[in-house]
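Exercise 7. Predict the joint structure of the components listed below.
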Amino acid sequence: MSTLAVYPGSFDPLTNGHVDIIERGARLFDRIIVAILVNAEKSPLFTMAERVEIARKVFTDHPNVEVDTFEGLLVDYVAKRQANVIVRGLRAVSDFEYEFQMALMNRRLNSKIETVFMMPAEQYSYISSRLIKEVFALGGRVHGLVPELVETRLREKRAVRM
Ligand SMILES: Nc1ncnc2c1ncn2[C@@H]1O[C@H](COP(=O)(O)OP(=O)(O)OP(=O)(O)O)[C@@H](O)[C@H]1O
Ligand SMILES: [Mg+2]
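Solution:
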């Protein structure tokens, strides 16, 4: 039996924390689908198409990493893709309560799907998309915290807005 994992999130934008978790997942599972949630936030910085394009480019050399989008219930999407694992990243205790609730709710909705938590390398354990956007908007340096392509795209957004 092959294990197909789904890593859901909004990835607005993809950070090196996400990349770290995806790479770990790609080593652990036969295949991992980065599933970008449609409409997670009403006004995202990056459009769906931009987020998909960025993730596909960053993982172009990883044949077992797929990038897709989904809406609605996560467990329905996971079942539709015939996957058996949900991957989530855990940064700190602050992530735990919400993730714990979601994992148990998802298990109640579909007991065949298992949620697996992974910890990123320490240097990425404080990164969130929200913090990256905040720091960048205020002129701070995000080099090393996001893939180079994301840095480029952030700069392009700033140029357009000014
Ligand atoms: N730096 C990180 N290290 C490990 N896991 C992470 C990291 N950032 C996000 N994750 C995990 O990735 C998954 C998708 O998260 P999400 O798309 O919400 O990213 P986020 O950085 O938390 O964005 P936001 O700040 O908009 O909430 C979640 O399981 C989240 O805990
Ligand atoms: Mg989050």
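Discussion. The chain is about 45% helix and 20% strand.
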